[in-house]
Automatic annotation (TrEMBL):
Pfam families: GGDEF_2, HTH_30
Region feature Disordered, mapped onto this chain: 358-379, 420-443
Protein name: Helix-turn-helix domain-containing protein
Coiled coil start-end: none
Residue ranges occupied by any PucR C-terminal helix-turn-helix domain in the UniProt entry: 543-599
Residue ranges, compositional bias (Gly residues): 359-374
Residue ranges occupied by any CdaR GGDEF-like domain in the UniProt entry: 330-488
Protein family membership: Belongs to the CdaR family.
């Protein structure tokens, strides 16, 4: 038997251009995997690509085509071997059969179980392995109790999800359900399972301390009936179907059930499923219930995407939202895609992962928080950040919209002020300045909370900026541009994590001025450069002393105290700076430009 010694090894050379469709078999197995399927043979490794799933019986073997995962039903012995070879001849990527084996399957991929599975009936498996290895097709063993239609449906849902995201940047989508489950786990501090309305497990987070209910649900891909009956008896499911209520389930040690939170997933009045959060060794997070509410609203979009043609609409919505933020389309173009009122006040909040070495909260530098990672690490952080932001903003406001453009993540907060348009007549329908300030303050608090959650749960430094409210969606590019200006200043000179333009307008303007001066060498004053060169050569402190003097508006005593030197020492240094540079500090225009140049020198 020519069984490959390492079926999980990647192929030595890249595939052809035609292999761009579908997903690697490895990825499908990680999503479907143990305990449903074992890898029995993989002569070409697990990077062969699968783009369809078909069920074939002995009477219609011609249904298999190139790239298919073929599920062989009703075939045993020589018939199964014949079909395996026929499927391989037609280019099938893999063949799945129901077998019993007393031989261990190959070790599972990383993150998919910890030990090989043992089956009964070794002779049958040995013959099928030999056939598959000789034919060059992957062979999967399916547990006898697994229903073929369920396995086909699960595999197709994974493939459909992959097709929707294969051409997208990682930051352009909120990610798949497994990524979302991990994000919810980080926010709540518990073990998360996402189930559909039939209690089938769609995704789950990683983690230890699983109780019996979670263990059986994950292994069986469905909640065990004896436990489901108890939950129905306790009225849990009726409460979950009733609406947006986070339901608490007390611990029942005698039943193997730890404390849980659960929330129903709804599309309008239609229940789509449930998110369960099991408490582990540590108590759940203080704000776990609020995070769970936002997660349910976000998860509803994913489940609708899998059930209907809304997938195309979601991608279109993201594209239209990005175009609106960039000012490339009219707000009216979103009317059929995004259910918001276009003539009410709105604003944009923007988030970005801090660059390596960027100032953190309070101006401190912590390279471990935001940078120092490779590209794949940055992309992963960005994807998780999209999930986290979407969960938080959905909990705050159902109509909030999140999209990623370039390296930043934007949140559109529409309908800030209810009860009327933007009119300027001062009538009863006009939003007041105080209501706008209140809405802006609420969004600012949400932004701070989101940034803190990113630091605590993702381990990355994130900066957030809130643009000013605008009268309608037609002016939303102005709010987005303002948020971008704040983030730009944070990346250059501004030692803050969260801000609005009203908080930091002067600092932003100075930062933009200094950025322009840095980029325009002709505007550099050689006299200030000479002063900096003198400090470097002589080890003196003329630049810092003169800058302190100018920042304190010529108040020698205050500036000297700030520098921890005697006032006479500062007076000497200021006179010396004038002598070395030739700058006349009695001239207000020279003082102004010198001050800007010194700020630029300090920043560089």
């Amino acid at each position: 038997m020519d069984v490959p010694s390492d079926p999980y090894a990647a192929p030595a050379a890249a595939g052809t251009a035609g292999e761009s469709a579908g997903i690697p078999l490895r990825r499908l197995l990680l999503a479907v995997g143990d305990p449903l399927v074992d890898v029995l043979a993989a002569p070409a490794g697990l990077d062969v690509r699968v783009d369809n799933v078909v069920i074939v019986d002995p009477e219609d073997e011609a249904e298999a085509f190139a790239g298919d995962l073929v599920l062989l039903i009703g075939a045993r012995g020589s018939a199964a071997r014949h079909l395996v070879r026929a499927a391989a001849r037609r280019g099938a990527a893999a063949v799945a059969v129901k077998v019993h084996s007393d031989e261990p399957a190959y070790p599972p991929p990383q993150g998919w179980g910890t030990a090989p599975q043992v089956r009964r009936g070794g002779d049958e498996v040995a013959l099928l392995r030999a056939e598959a290895s000789e034919a060059g097709v992957a062979l999967l063993g399916v547990r006898p109790e697994v229903r073929w239609d369920q396995l086909q449906s699960l595999c197709r849902s994974v493939l459909d999800d992959a097709r929707l995201t294969s051409e997208a940047d990682l930051g352009e989508t909120a990610g798949d359900l497994y990524s979302l489950a991990q994000t919810i786990s980080a926010l709540t501090g518990g073990l998360v399972t996402i189930e559909d309305s039939a209690s089938r497990v769609l995704a789950h987070s990683s983690g230890e301390e699983a109780d019996e209910l979670r263990r059986l649900s994950v292994l069986g891909r469905r909640g065990p009936e004896q436990y489901l009956a108890l939950l129905r008896e306790w009225g849990v499911f009726s409460r979950l179907r009733a609406g947006e209520e986070v339901v608490r389930i007390d611990e029942h040690p005698q039943l193997g059930i730890r404390r849980r939170l659960a929330v129903g997933i709804h599309a309008g009045s239609q229940p789509l499923g449930t998110i369960w959060v099991q408490e582990g060794a540590q108590p759940l997070a203080e704000d776990a219930e609020q995070a769970l509410l936002g997660a349910a609203r976000m998860t509803a979009l994913h489940l609708v995407r899998h059930r209907t043609e809304a997938t195309v609409g979601l991608r279109l919505r993201d594209d239209l939202l990005a175009s609106l933020l960039e000012g490339r389309i009219e707000a009216a173009a979103l009317a059929d895609t995004i259910e918001v009122t276009t003539d009410r006040p709105a604003l944009v909040a923007a988030f970005a992962i801090s660059p390596s070495g960027a100032p953190g909260a309070g101006g401190r530098t912590d390279p471990a928080r935001g940078g120092g990672t490779d590209r794949s690490g940055r992309e992963l952080n960005r994807r998780r950040l999209v999930d986290l932001i979407t969960v938080h903003t959905a909990a705050y406001r159902r109509t909030s919209l999140v999209t990623a453009v370039g390296g930043r993540i934007y949140v559109l907060m529409p309908d800030l002020v209810r009860g009327g348009g933007s009119g300027g007549s001062g009538g009863s329908d006009s939003p007041t300045d105080s209501s706008r300030r209140s809405a802006e303050s609420s969004v600012l608090a949400l932004t701070r909370k989101t940034v803190e959650a990113a630091r605590a749960t993702l381990g990355v430094a994130v900066q957030g900026a809130v643009g000013s409210p605008v009268d309608s969606l037609a002016a939303i590019p102005d709010s987005r541009a303002e948020a971008d200006r704040i983030l730009d200043a944070m990346g250059r000179d501004l030692a803050m994590d969260v801000a609005t333009m009203s908080d930091v307008r002067t600092q932003v303007l100075i930062s933009e001025t200094l950025a322009y001066l840095r980029g325009t060498p002709a505007l550099r004053d050689p006299r200030v450069s000479a002063l900096a060169d003198h400090d470097a050569a002589q080890g003196s402190d003329l630049v810092v002393s003169l800058l302190a003097y100018l920042e304190e508006f010529g108040d020698v005593r205050t500036a000297a105290a700030r520098l921890h030197i005697h006032p006479n020492t500062l007076r000497y240094r200021v006179r010396r700076a004038e002598s070395v540079s030739g700058i006349d500090l009695s001239d207000p225009t020279q003082r102004l430009f010198t001050h800007l140049q010194l700020l630029m020198e300090r920043a560089t």
